[in-house]
Model the fold of this input.
Amino acid sequence: MTINYDELSKKVLALDSQVRFAGVANSKGELVAGGHNENVEGILSGDEVKMSMHYALQKRELYTNLAYKIGKETSSITEYEKVTMISVPINSNELFMISTEPRADYLKIIDYVHSALDSQKDA
Done:
């Protein structure tokens, strides 16, 4: 069964008021689903959002080289002063990306995304 990424993105945005952005990037760094929470002002411009996706994908590729030793990546969290960036690999070509306010309960958000992706894979 195919996962509806737009629907999942909307559910993640609704999960916690501190979620600023939820969406899926493909291996080319293109946003294929999702978007910003309408109630928050964006920090990055359009080109900067693309750069952010590119950097997240690049970081994922770097750690993939160590997967044979440390296991496959299940999520990545980077905390900045103004925002927390979260990425959850969906498959080898897609990355679910989330940004939150600092100090948000990101483990709850990550658990929700994993549960939603796993339930769709099992369906």
Observations:
- The first strand starts at residue 19 and ends at 26.
- The domain at 5-33+43-122 is CATH 3.30.450.30 (Beta-Lactamase).
- The chain is about 40% helix and 25% strand.
- The mean pLDDT is 87.
